[in-house]
Amino acid sequence: MSARRRAAPLLLLALLGLGGGAPALAKSDPGRLYVLGRRAVKDGYPRQAVLRLTAAIAERTNEGEPWVGVYGENREPYLAHFYLGLAFFDLGEHDLALRAWEESERQGAVKEFPEYRVLLEKRGLIEREILPQSAEGVRAGLATLRAAVAEGRTALDALQAVGDDPGELALRLGRVDDELAAQSALLAAEGGKSFRVLREVEERAATALLEAAAVRREAGMRAAALGGERIDAAVKAALAVLGDSGCRRDGLARLVSLERLAAARAEAASAARAARLELGVARAALACGELERAAQSLAAAAHGGGADPPEFLRLRAELGVARERLMRDEREDLAVRDDALARFAEAAAAADAGECDRPVIARLEAASETVRRHARRRELVTWIALEAGVPYAPQFQLARAYRSCGDPERAAAALEKSRGRAEELPADMKAEADGLEEWVRREKVRRFYGESHALVLLARDYESKDWPDLPRATLRSEQIEATLRKLGFAAPKIIANPTLSQLRGAVADFIAAFGGPTQPRNRLLIYFAGHGMTIHGTYGGSLFPVGFLVPTDAPPPPATVEDNEKFEKRAISMDQVHAWAKQIASAHHAVFVFDSCFAGSVFQVMPSGLISPPSILDQQVGDPARYFITASNEEDEVPDSTAFIDTLLAALDGREGKEVLYKDRILFGDELCVYLRHRDPPIHPASKPLCGPMPPPYNRGDIFFVLPPLDGDAGAHEAPSEAARAAARQELEAWRGAAAAGSAVAYRIYLESYPHGRFAGLVRSRLGLTMEGREH
């Protein structure tokens, strides 16, 4: 093994502080170390997981096969870098997690397994939420440093204004300013991509902040020793800087600094000097829109005496005009608030009521954009949430409204925006959001497939006593129908004890009715439970198997070559099944399930092979597919039991394999097949199910199912009850009546009925404006 390969895991340990005192792991089987590390990740021991997984990687870095044996025949792929990334994620070492997942993705094996979805979700969470939040915290630190530099510069300006050269202090503050510029540029260029860069920027900014504070403190100590004459000269120079050119914050800061300096020196106290300072601060504050500071300075100048009367009167008049303008702006801001709150509260109430109100939706979309562009957005959002009585989450409310309109595409887009904008939702709304997401998925499936139909053939009682009856074959007909209905299928056509003609006729009628050119988006399922038979022929000196489904009126199992010909005429060959699959000309997806002996011979006529890699990307369902699942291969018998159908139904119903299949409630055919084949314990000890598609052009896609929610599962949360919707409709009508009237009486009537209603805050605000208008 190369030195570089051995050094990589040691570096990871060192970064976590796990080197040195941590117990050294002896060289061991990488498979065993991987299994222990994988288990530690799932059990919540990430540091132990890092130790074991890095040791496993030191012995074997390549992922994929050969697979690692876990729990007997239940075998798992070797994905050490993927699980190492999960451990780092749990430790908050997101940079290292991304690095480990990048290596796992580069090797490619993880893309073939369900773990790849977890990788994409976690990486998306880091890139979409965690990294931006960390970057925002670092930006806040740089803003604090920027403010400290500005304060230090003000202190140095005060020294310069009174003729005291800052000297070394200016050089030190200059270096801090250079550090601020460098770290700001680094954050802008790389800070949104790397936690390592964010940590470096944060640490250097903290060191620079200490230096800026020290400069400011030393400058203040030097300024405190200055006399009155020097302060007078500085005041004169600072007033000259203001001029009439608008807001000069540097001049305002210098005057404020001199004001503090003069107040701190008792021997420098002078009514005239203080008045000049206060009037200068008022003039600078007015130019910068700081009306409260300007008012305070004017009041201080009037109280202290010594103020120039014309200058004082001019500034007081300007302050009055500015206040009038501010009141006008506040009234406009109040109108924006009123409008945004009304639209948000009305949309939330309409969603509660289950109304599809397109104008309300359009108004909410416009209002949410207005709020996003508002200068004091955070303050406005907080106010709206308080007055509306629900968190300000416009995209979530839009998703609810789109559900009422039966629009899953727009509901999904709104939910995605809700997550992207980090809308805060309480627990009950998060549960409803999960239910909304489940509804979106189900609607997409319902609309993806035009219709879903099933044909169920159950052969139990055979005419020839050489074929034993199969009493268990019909035991699960009710469960089959119930499960298929949950998966979105129409009531299946169930035929018990089909003869040859009945079996052929049923399949032909089924394909004609639901698989023809007028049903291009249909999903079809054909299930056969009964006897199966394999006959071996010879060609070119080699044996080859031919499989048959056995109808209830079939002749006895053949014993001679002559018997073979009689039997073949009274049974359904797998060649015929293959031909049926080809006859389904337009249906999008079709799956054949055979719960019979020797059914695996269907794959002998399909050169594309057996199991394809597990489906990962949803776009695979966009292509047509003809898929087969059998309870056994072409050589093995299946006992007369319900084990296969019970396992299949439990997996489709979400009652079995939940940890493997139920994470996103979307089950692909290939995922189901991998589960059936590698289930521990096996369905039948002597035989394993087989799965596979037809050859091109029908092997490009994959059939899929949306599993039903279990009790207590996120997807089980439903929309508000009918009683809640009725109450919401009643309140919404009361609000609309009050808003249409627009009178104080109408608003009071609403408040009497709904003192804590969705529109109570808005009504009180409007009621206050109504009373204010009457007083004036």
Task: Tell me what you see in this structure.
The protein has 776 residues and is an alpha/beta fold. The protein is 59% helix and 9% strand. Helix 16 crosses helix 18 (427-448).
Number of helices: 28
- β content, as a range? 5-15%
| Mean pLDDT over the full residue set | 75
In total, how many beta strands?
13
Helical content (DSSP H or I, runs of 4+): 55-70%
With strands numbered from the N-terminus, the spatial order across the biggest sheet is 4-3-5-9-10-12
User: Rounded to an integer, what's the Rg over CA atoms?
Assistant: 38 Å
Main beta sheet: 6 strands, mixed
Distance between the termini: 88 Å
Keywords:
776 residues; 59% helix; three-stranded antiparallel β-sheet; alpha/beta; disordered C terminus; disordered N terminus; 28 helices
Secondary structure: elements and pairs:
Elements: H1 3-15, H2 30-43, H3 46-59, E1 64-69, E2 75-78, H4 80-90, H5 94-107, H6 115-161, H7 168-190, H8 195-223, H9 228-242, H10 249-264, H11 271-287, H12 291-304, H13 309-353, H14 358-373, H15 377-388, H16 394-404, H17 408-420, H18 427-448, E3 452-458, H19 477-486, E4 493-496, H20 500-514, E5 523-529, E6 532-539, E7 542-549, H21 561-569, E8 572-573, H22 574-583, E9 589-595, E10 625-630, H23 643-653, H24 658-661, E11 666-668, H25 669-678, E12 690-693, E13 704-706, H26 722-741, H27 744-753, H28 760-775
Parallel strand pairs: 3-4, 3-5, 5-9, 9-10
Antiparallel strand pairs: 1-2, 6-7, 7-8, 10-12, 11-13
Helix pairs in contact: 1-3, 2-3, 2-4, 3-4, 4-5, 5-6, 6-7, 6-8, 6-10, 7-8, 9-10, 9-11, 10-11, 11-12, 11-13, 12-13, 13-14, 13-15, 13-16, 13-26, 14-16, 16-17, 16-18, 17-18, 19-23, 26-27, 27-28
